Amino acid sequence: MLKIDNLHVKLEEEDKQILKGLSLEIPAGQVHAIMGPNGSGKSTLSYVLSGRDGYEVTEGSATLDGQSLLDMEPEQRASAGLFLAFQYPVEIPGVGNMTFLRTAVNAQRKARGEAELSSGDFLKLVRAKAAELQISPEMLKRPVNVGFSGGEKKRNEILQMAMLEPRMCIMDETDSGLDVDAMRLVSDGVNALRSPDRSFLVITHYQRLLNHIQPDVVHIMANGRIVKSGGPELALQVEEEGYGDLLAEAG
Amino acid sequence: MADIAVQTKGQTPSVEGATKPANALDARLSALSLPQGGFALARRDALSRLQDMGLPGSRDEYWRYTDPRPFNAPEATALPVPQEQATPLFETLDRLTLVFVDGVFDEAASDDLALEGVEITTLAKADEANWAADLYGRLEAAGQNPVRRPFATLNTAAAQDGLLIRVTGKPSKPIHVVHRRASDNADAIWHHVIRVEAGAELTLLETGMSGARSNSVIEVDLAEGAAFHHVASKRAVDSRVGIGHIFARVAAKAQFKSFTLSVNGTVMRNEAVIDIAGDDAVAHIAAAVLGDGGKAPFHQDDTVFITHGAERCESRQVFKKVLKNGAQGVFQGKILVKPGAQKTDGYQISQALLLDERSQFLAKPELEIYADDVKCSHGSTTGAIDDEALFYLRSRGVPRERAIVFLVLSFLADALAEIEDEAIRDCIYERLDVWLTLNAVQ
Ligand SMILES: Nc1ncnc2c1ncn2[C@@H]1O[C@H](COP(=O)(O)OP(=O)(O)OP(=O)(O)O)[C@@H](O)[C@H]1O
Ligand SMILES: [Mg+2]
């Protein structure tokens, strides 16, 4: 589903290379995790894939279902089925959560040539999904992420994901800032979305999340590259030993 | 008669037909058909005050950011009446609709001047026996200190028509003044006087445009415990020019709240002079401005002067301007706290969202405080669209133009929040959304 090949990315504004030949392939239906030290380029990868400004791809490619992602506008990538749950969700005062979500859902439907959801159908759907994530109707009415606690923001990201039903979900440290119960809620939400034609790329620092969301493959990222890939046991090894030996071994 | 030299200034859009003669005021006055009907005494007084003060010139500090020539010019620059008249707003609300065409009351197009708890007459038909005879021009005259506002005085002298509204109760619905244009070169001058008696309440809605050039004055006199809510929506579909003044006197425990949405036009200036005269009174004034300098130059100026003359009063100024294609926005706002006005709570914010680098926001916030136990703050910012927020919205599939509309609404939210009535606020939101979508930025 997602295929990244030899991706090189530098900052547009300065001469700083962040991704240095990253390759990664996620087949449909699989969950891959990326772990790696702070500053290794994990968030940068997620931004480059979803089309944020400020980066320059100097080499390599990234495709979703064979379609090149890198030439598309962010909204086109979203309609093509890509979703990024942000490490730091953005607050947008004065814009209602519901209004935003309905606009997003219907814009994507329109872009794909599907019929828009009526406000009644949308409302029913969003209420049901919000209830599963224990997001109160009052929170739905508030402006996007404004006044939400850290954990509430992360749950709101998963609500958006559940509503938009993307095929390729990237989650950047969705577990950070979550209490134990919220972690379970979020994991249940993600697991409910798992299906043979949906894939996940889960960026995390902690093995704990991977107990809830079982990955098929774990990648270790360092200095802008994937330096090692393996099964779930790799995450346990990181948890116990840190990155020292792993990185030394990878050279 | 004062000789006023009107000089050119480079920074504001030049307007064809601007005055050149040295005796600009003579030329200006001779183009007006003086005297108009009603309140002859007050009008004569205004005329002599105007002759003393003259028209503003280029060295006038008070007109530093805005070129007064479009208002000094004897004649309005003719503008074809646009095909598109203002689309109806507030139609879903129960209201008393009063129509003005180029500044003159249109009885046939209006509802009957009957509303429980309210007495309404028109200026053109008023005589010296009218309750407003004493009040007409009085707040305007009081508002000439410390700076001159000659166009308001000119208005008092020459207004063609207006509403005289005296409120003694709590009417069941708002009064909605609808302005329309009919002639290409009308120089519309109208003047409302509103007196809200003790404990009474009024909501005044205003929409549309009158004249190719307009000059409006609203005098609002609030007695103890009175409440006045004003929501205006002014969208120019052409390159018109206009100046408007609101003069308010707010007695103890009274509430004055005014919100204006301004969209386009070429040179627009709104002045508000609010005198908080009684203890525990409240005055809020807010504006949302959308300016596009693309088709015609755009220059919009909000000038506010709030005087705190009593204890425990609250004032709020919230001004937000969205500017693109070289549009210019101006904000001059002053809070004056007089000696003895203890426990004053004064707040002022003016902010511009510039959608391109050619647009410009000029702000002059001022505080002058002569009491020691007060809380006053002011702030002014100029910014661009937040890239991170824009990316966040787009990453969810919201197209760029729509995402910018969201961010503009987000920027304006604090000003719109000043509209207390939810139904009225919803109407304004809906309208804004439509306009913003029509004018979507590429
Ligand atoms: N816009 C930018 N300007 C300057 N440096 C940047 C920018 N974006 C990323 N970087 C740098 O690139 C590197 C990778 O950053 P990135 O946020 O992708 O790391 P990360 O792996 O997500 O780290 P963390 O685990 O702390 O979230 C860091 O050194 C960061 O400082
Ligand atoms: Mg990161």
UniProtKB/TrEMBL annotation, chain A:
NCBIfam families: sufC. It comes from the Bacteria. Residues 2-248 form the ABC transporter domain. One of its GO terms (molecular function) is ATP binding. SMART domains: AAA (SM00382). It comes from Paracoccus acridae. Belongs to the ABC transporter superfamily. Ycf16 family. It holds the Pfam family ABC_tran. Transmembrane segments: none annotated. This is ABC transporter ATP-binding protein. Keywords: ATP-binding, Nucleotide-binding.
From TrEMBL, chain B:
It comes from Paracoccus acridae. Residues 184-411 form the SUF system FeS cluster assembly SufBD core domain. InterPro entries: Fe-S_cluster_assembly_SufBD (IPR055346), SUF_FeS_clus_asmbl_SufBD_core (IPR000825), SUF_FeS_clus_asmbl_SufBD_sf (IPR037284), SufBD_N (IPR045595). It comes from the Bacteria. Residues 42-168 form the SUF system FeS cluster assembly SufBD N-terminal domain. Transmembrane segments: none annotated. Belongs to the iron-sulfur cluster assembly SufBD family. It holds the Pfam family SufBD_N. This is Fe-S cluster assembly protein SufD. PANTHER family: PROTEIN ABCI7, CHLOROPLASTIC.
